[in-house]
Amino acid sequence: SNIFAGPLTHVTFRPHTPDSQNVGMFLEKGELGVQAGSAAEDSTIEVRTNAGTFLLGRGDHAYIRISSNGKDVSGEVLVLKGEVECADAGGKSIGTLSGGQRGLLSRDATRIEGLTVAKPRVPAWRADLVSDSDLRALLGGTIKQLLRQDGVIRAEVSYDSQSGRNALQDWIADEGAAP
After folding, report:
1. b/e for 38-66, b at 16 or more Cβ within 10 A?
2. Looking at CB atoms within 10 Å, which of 61, 90, 109, 114 has the fewest?
3. DSSP three-state, residue 21
C-alpha cells in the first residue's frame, strides 16, 4: 500500500491491532492519497475524519481532501480505481463510490452521491513528489526537466536505440494537461 500526504496535511496513523484487520489513520485536515495494495495479505485501509470514514479494500486508489474551519468540516473523495465505502461521523454507512466518481461529504451527511468525473486524475500536488528517477522509470527514457511549478512538470524525453521505445507510441494528446 502507498500513502501520499499533500502539503499542510495533518494525519495520524493508528497502529495495527490484533483485533482489527484494518490499517487506520485519522485525517484532521489536508489531502491524502491512498493506494491500497492488491496482494492477499494486504489489509483494508480505514481513513477516519471529522466528516466521516472511508474504507479502501485491495487494489483501491482514492484521494481524500478535508477542510476544517472550526466546527464546520467538509470532505471530498475522488476514487480513481475500485470502490470506497463511505460512512458518516458516527460510523453508519452512507454509500459507496466507484472508480471515476467524486463525492462530497459534510459532518451531517446522511448519503454520499457519486458524481462522474470525465477524466479522473491524481491531484496536481502529487507531481511535486515525483523525482527524476521516477520519471525515468515511468517513461523509459532520458529526462530533462524544463519546468516544475504549481503541480506541473514539463520535461523533454529522449529515447535511445537501447530503450527499444518509440516516442510516438507513448503519447496521446490530452487537452486538459496543458498549463
Report:
1. eeeeebbbbbbbbbbbbbbebebbbbbbb
2. 90
3. coil
Distance of alpha carbon 62 from alpha carbon 84, whole angstroms: 8
What's the pLDDT band for 83 if we cut at 50, 70, 90?
very high
Distance CA 177, CA 60 (A): 24
Give the C-alpha distances (Å, rounded to integers) separating 130 from 78, 133, 148: 20, 8, 10
Q: CA angle, 38 as apex, 120 and 28 as ends, to 5°?
A: 60
User: In whole angstroms, how far apart are CA 26 and each of 12, 29, 37?
Assistant: 5, 9, 19
Q: Give the range among 26-40, 65-79, 99-113, 129-143 with minimum mean pLDDT.
A: 129-143
Length of the chain: 179
